[in-house]
Structures are given as structure tokens and as C-alpha cells.
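pinging the channel bc i need a second pair of eyes. not urgent but kinda urgent?? the chain im working w is below, pasted from the shared doc
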Amino acid sequence: MQFQIECIESKSEPNQTQYSKFVLEPLDRGQGTTIGNALRRVLLSNLEGTAITAVRIAGLVRSENIRGEKGETRFTTVNHEFATLVGVRQDVLELLLNMKDVVLKSYTAQPQIGRLNVTGPARVTAGMFELPSEVEVVDQNQYVATVAEGGKLEMEFRIERGKGYRSVDKFREQGLAMDLLQIDAVFMPVNKVNYLVEDVRVDGCPERDRLILEVWTNGSVTPQEALSESAKILVDLLNPLKDISLEPFEPEFTSEEDPASQVPIEELNLSVRAYNCLKRAQINSVSDLMGYSQEDLLEIKNFGQKSAEEVIEALQRRLGIMLPHDKNPK
């Protein structure tokens, strides 16, 4: 008997986050935990999402002298997270945190650029963003900042698609402008997953499992879409294991892969004179020696007849290798 899946509860929160509760039954004993754990791991780590990864912020900044006294105020671009903007309630660090929480949905794999230009007084929300046609805001009322009268806030931010959590410490891009502030990116569209396995009786048989799966998303995807995509990922992952043909492995050795040719010349136990001459000629292994004939050995600098005979004898005695007598053609 194949199991059935049913969505017994579904709701959307005011901030556009979504929740659904699914029941899968009946499953063979033990399969509830297997399927529930596998789906949970894929839902939380392998689904693609959209996030803001870098922000450029411009506004009214008041300069300070070495004593901390306030100086002139001018409109400029900030280049570090600890700056403050005149007329904006949030400092730059708090602005970056609010931008990190903005939930977007992108329909393209290419990075996109969004913009914001606000003059106070204003309560800035994500609905005020100027976004390309491939990107949309999930919650138009998501709070970003408060700008007082006379204040001004301009931002330009980069939007990317990805998986999981990307920390700036590990993935900091080099060569970016100093005023482009990178932030940790949370791409995960699924916020939370719970699963529970219960015993269920089918046709008088109590040895069956019922899997109850609860999924919370950030609103960029529905729980149904997230569950379907995660199941597809698992199927694609396991599909190559369906048809396995086991064939005996027979290693093939060519002349270049002959283990004897990889023996270092140190194992030939040559005299110091013969060994040093070979090393100076960049001959480090038996495979290097096999490119020489007996006459070629005599042309090595300071390599006499006695040393050549010693090498030829060592190769024949230890490895059964005989070098050709005539000189190799160049």
C-alpha cells in the first residue's frame, strides 16, 4: 500500500510567513523517521532562496575632530559599519541588520541591483525599494529605517540567489569598493521544520507509522512548494542508485604504469660515485634510467665504464631489466 499525504492545516501570518502541517500515512515501521529526517535536512539546507548580500549607504554624515567635537555635515557615502547618519534613527550597523532581514523573491539566477532614495520625514519600508522586474518584495510593510525631517537616505544593494547561510568571514569578495558593505546572507526560504512519528493501525495491523510534518517558510515559497522541491532533490539524489551493475575490477598496467619503473635509484644500492653522477644528470628513478642505453650511460659526465657496468648489473639483478646496448637515436 502506498502512503497518502494530506495538508491538514495551513495559514499565513501578518508578516507573510507561511505555515502548513502535513500528514503522511501509512508508512512501514521505521520509515517515518527515515523520511521525516531526510526531508527536514533538505528543507533547511538545500532549497534556493534570495538575500541581500552587499549594501552601499549614503546620507548626511557629521565629521568629528580628534577631540570628538562635531564638525561640518555633508552628504557622503559611508565606508564602515560603525558610522552614524544625521537624521536617521538607526546607525549603519542596525540598517545592515534590517536589510539582512528583508525577504525577497528572485526569478533569475543572475545578481540584481536594488535602490532606495528617501527624504525625511519618512518611515522606510521594503515597499519603497526600486527593484528590477525579476525581483519582488514578499512583505511590503517590512520595516527598514526611520528618517527624520531634513534627513536623507540613499542605498544601493546587491541581490543574489543561493543556498543555506553565507558568512562574510568565509566568503568575502576581494576587489570590491570600500563603500560596498558586505553582510551575512540568509538564503534559506524555510525557517523551521518539525516532524513527529506516531503509531497507526491499518487493517488491524498496528505496525505502521504516521509522519506529521510541520513547515514554516519566510513567504518567498509556500510550504507545499518547499516540500515538493525537497522531495524532488531527494529523488534525484537517490535515482543513480536504482540500477547498479557490479563488475569485477581488473587493474590494467601499461609499461608507463609498471611498478618496477617507479623504483627510486636509491634502492639499487649503487656506489656513491655512480649515485651522485646519476643525480646530477636528473636521473631519480628507474623509469628515468630506462630512457638510456648502455652507450648513453657512458656519455654522462664523470660516469665511467665501471659505473655503467654497476648500474646495468643492478638493474638486471634486482629488477630483471636489461638496457639496450646501442645508443638511442636522438
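so The chain has a mean pLDDT of 84. and The chain has three domains: 4-47+190-237, 49-186, 255-319. — does that match what u expected or am i reading it wrong
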